[in-house]
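ugh ok fine here u go
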Amino acid sequence: GQAKQYDKVFARIYYLMDKFEEYGQVGYLPGAYSTLAEAHLNTGHPDSTIYYANKAVTATKRSGRVTGFGFLMRTIAQAYANQNNFEKAFEYQQRYTNYMDSLNLSDALKRVAALQYSFELDKKESQISLLKKNEELTARQNRQQKILLAGTLIGLIVVLVFIVILWRNNKEKHRAYLRLEQQQEQLKQTQTQLIQSEKMASL
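structure:
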């Protein structure tokens, strides 16, 4: 029953591969070859497994993709092991390991890059926040200086007005004092004239 199911899988994949090539959909060939390789591996055909797995590797490289590359290396290693060709099995197992290590390294580098980006972003946000705080502090200081300057100016104006008022008052007092002296002098002169007139009249 399982063999018939795989026969159906094979027939379906061969049909799809013909259609892919007919319509130029070569991007689907790596997946089709990979499926064929796995099916042949599960049905005990290591030669066909290696053949289609290598075709899948070639198609994958041509497409510029790397998805499934490690799976293909492991499939080929298992096929060689089934043939008791342990030297080749070890070689492809090592390729699989190296590929997975490179993926892990790539993931680690991506994580480091993401952490660095997050750190730089936080750093920039902190700098922006500090800059805003400095701008707010500077604006507040400028407002305080303007208020202080305005208060000082108002104070000077008040003092100046007060000085002008005092000066005018003193000037008025001085004028009044002069008028009073003139009036007193005139009064003395009038008294002197009256006394002289009285003396003349008595003679």
